[in-house]
Design brief:
It contains ten helices and four strands. The chain is an alpha+beta fold. It folds into two domains: 6-50 and 232-318, no CATH class; 56-219, no CATH class. A hairpin with a 2-residue loop joins strand 3 (250-257) and strand 4 (260-267). Helix 2 (56-66) runs antiparallel to helix 6 and helix 8 (271-288) runs antiparallel to helix 9. The longest helix is centred in the middle third of the chain and has 94 residues, at 139-232.
Length: 323
């Protein structure tokens, strides 16, 4: 591979011979061979998952978040019911339900005691009736009649007064009940908010732990994928380095005409640049699966390089065994 390839052209005045260094020809052959090998290889897909699934903790957190209302909504529902009771109007309720306890416990008892006192007074009057009647008939009857009138009057007055007291007592009880309902409703709201906060904290903690686990799993998946890509494309990247080197390295071209020798230096171009382009096309074809197209491009580039007189040599020189 270290031998120099040359091309010569005869003329009536002599001959013209162009030569390139052997390492340029050898590197070009290696690049084309590597590119053709890559092109003939079957494209290799990555058959593993690249996205990490939700962690178990994240799934639990989502489930808890979806059903969280089952734990704290009953508190708010009870609070709403109690708030509705606390905002009732005294005019809209059955007032007798609040007045009757006072009437039953106070008024009835007092009227009973007033009646007992009246009967006791009547008995006393009747006990002394004989003495009073000695001075004239009918005096005891007049006293009893006056006693009954006083009893009826005092009882009526008391009933009126006690009804007013019963009304005031009932209204006060109603207002106290409303205030108590509002306090209990506020307590239910506080319980509901506490339960909601605890529920949110629980599923947020689960979600946070799950996200950390999923991030770690995703990092591992990314690492595995990069390792696969590095192993799969290792020779392609090496070929890329070689192609770029061939495209940029300066080389000497020696031109001989009869007995004269002329040396000049220039960067790689002309025919060699076309060969390099063909090799790059072959390598790029691996990523698209275009094997036949890449092969044609490589053959075309190599043929153009030979025809340009760049000194790389024939197609047989570039791809041994394919002539």
């Amino acid at each position: 591979m270290g031998s120099k390839k040359s091309s010569s052209k005869s003329s009536s005045k002599g001959y013209n011979k162009l030569e390139l260094p052997g390492y340029i020809n050898a590197a070009s052959k290696a690049a084309v061979a590597s590119g053709m090998s890559i092109n003939e290889r079957q494209y290799q897909n990555y058959d593993k998952d690249r996205m990490a699934e939700l962690a178990h903790e994240e799934k639990m957190g989502i489930s808890k978040a979806r059903n969280a209302g089952e734990h704290y909504k009953p508190y708010f529902e009870e609070a709403n019911t109690m708030y509705a009771g606390a905002t009732r109007s005294w005019k809209d309720v059955d007032q007798s339900a609040y007045m009757n306890p006072y009437i039953d416990n106070v008024q009835t008892d007092t009227i009973g005691r007033m009646g007992d006192a009246n009967e006791q007074r009547r008995a006393e009057i009747r006990g002394t009736a004989a003495q009073r009647d000695a001075f004239g008939s009918g005096r005891s009857d007049m006293i009893e009649s006056k006693l009954d009138e006083d009893y009826i009057r005092s009882t009526g007055e008391y009933v009126n007064e006690s009804n007013v007291a019963a009304y005031q007592s009932g209204k006060q009880t109603f207002e106290q009940e409303n205030a108590m309902l509002a306090q209990v409703a506020n307590a239910k709201v506080a319980q509901g908010m506490s339960a909601e906060a605890a529920e949110k904290s629980a599923y947020q903690t689960l979600m946070g732990a799950g996200q950390v686990k999923r991030a770690l799993e995703q990092n591992k998946m990314n690492f595995d994928y990069l390792e696969f890509m590095e192993e799969r494309d290792w020779d392609i990247r090496n070929l890329d380095v070689l192609v770029n080197t061939l495209a940029a390295v300066p080389y000497e071209k020696t031109e001989r005409f009869k007995s004269k020798t002329k040396n000049e230096s220039k960067t790689s171009g002309g025919g060699l640049g076309q060969v390099v382009g063909a090799v790059a096309t072959v390598a790029a074809a691996y990523f698209t699966g275009g094997a036949s197209l890449a092969a044609q491009a490589a053959a075309s580039g190599a043929s153009s390089a030979t025809q340009s007189g760049g000194g790389v040599g024939s197609t047989a020189d570039l791809m041994p065994g394919m002539a």
